[in-house]
Automatic annotation (TrEMBL):
Function: Component of the Mediator complex, a coactivator involved in the regulated transcription of nearly all RNA polymerase II-dependent genes. Mediator functions as a bridge to convey information from gene-specific regulatory proteins to the basal RNA polymerase II transcription machinery. Mediator is recruited to promoters by direct interactions with regulatory proteins and serves as a scaffold for the assembly of a functional preinitiation complex with RNA polymerase II and the general transcription factors.
The organism of origin for this protein: Adineta steineri
Cellular component annotations (GO), alphabetically ordered: core mediator complex; mediator complex
Transcription regulation found in the keyword field: yes
Subunit composition and interactions: Component of the Mediator complex.
Alphabetized GO MF terms: transcription coregulator activity
Protein's name according to its UniProt entry: Mediator of RNA polymerase II transcription subunit 14
Mediator complex subunit MED14 N-terminal domain boundaries: 21-73
UniProt keyword Transcription regulation present: yes
Keyword terms, alphabetized: Activator, Nucleus, Transcription, Transcription regulation
Protein family per UniProt: Belongs to the Mediator complex subunit 14 family.
Chief site of localization: nucleus
GO terms under biological process: regulation of transcription by RNA polymerase II
């Protein structure tokens, strides 16, 4: 008899299947959110100055990047 753990046991954390969301669903939601935000910005930005547009586009790009990084991390 061995005092150590058996060869068949696993130290992985068991997560119930109902707590998992498929990656494809997360990515689809993120793409839809990003597209909606970009579409909305297109309507709003035409009335702003060139500098304000650039600032808003950089902010948008950072938010979108962070969203996808959080999903893939």
């Amino acid at each position: 008899m061995s005092a150590g753990p058996s060869a068949g046991s696993s130290n992985a954390i068991m997560v119930p299947i109902y707590d998992k969301i498929p990656l494809s669903h997360l990515l689809e939601a993120a793409v839809q959110k990003t597209y909606h935000e970009l579409y909305t910005m297109a309507d709003v930005l035409h009335s702003q100055t060139n500098l304000e547009r650039k600032i808003e586009l950089i902010k948008f790009a950072c938010r979108a990047r962070q969203l996808f990084i959080r999903i893939l991390a």
